[in-house]
Design goal:
Largest sheet: 4 strands, antiparallel
Helix content: 40-55%
Strand order of the largest sheet: 1-8-3-6
CATH superfamily of the largest domain: Jelly Rolls
Order of helices and strands: HHHHHEEEEEEHEEHHHHHEEH
Number of helices: 12
Number of strands: 10
Strand content: 15-25%
Number of domains: 2
Amino acid sequence: MKTILLAHTMLILPDTKLPLHQKRKYNNCHATSVNLQNEHSYSMGKCDQCIVREFSSLKALNKEELLKIADCKSSFTIRKGEPIFTEGENVNGIFCIKDGVCKLTKLSPNGNDQIIKLIQKGELLGQRSMISDEPVNLSAVALEDMEVCFIPKTEIMGLFSQNNQFSMNIMKAICGDLKEADDHLVTMAQKPVKQRLAETLVYLQDTFGINPDNSLKVKLSREELAGMVGTATESCIRLLSEFNKLGIVSLSGKKITITDKAKLMKAAT
């Protein structure tokens, strides 16, 4: 049984506004979580010291507002491969990514998952659907074990009327997402697959870093990488093999190591 470690303040509330699949986990794992709540609450309950506040819209909140959020949020662990939320779900709040990486995917008509974006620690999820009062149009799935906090919509919307800078930060974040979507659409429509793959590999290294052995820190299957690039898995494998023969990358299972970044960046332009 997978255990979700919820903060103390949420364990005593029977009407918590977690998404449906998280509610099921909460109900099933409540008894097991109680024994672990104190340790987990200590590490994940301090909103004023959280990395998410430093990099997200929450940086506009004052100490009193942060304490209010800390009292109503829930904190839990998402295991690798588990969904944070699923396309079409009503999440009724926002998710703060305290640690880990997840993928945002869209299910295509042919049943394949298209990776739209990767989300890392310090970012928020669910802002657009919360404001538009619509179900989420993407799924979020953990690529590694994650620490996530959930803040109910009622608390966030209450801050909108009290803190203008917070409201503006949320709007700027949504506008930034729209700009990224526009750029991604142009890339998919106008750039060849080889160039898109090269750009994606550079992006993965520059954004998420490398392991001690110099391989990309974010491990994606060939299918996931193909979904992110927007091509067939076979084409992705063929192009990676081509990069490998040219000495641009080295391959070992899921591990990809960029061995000649200058050549890869040239292929990306």
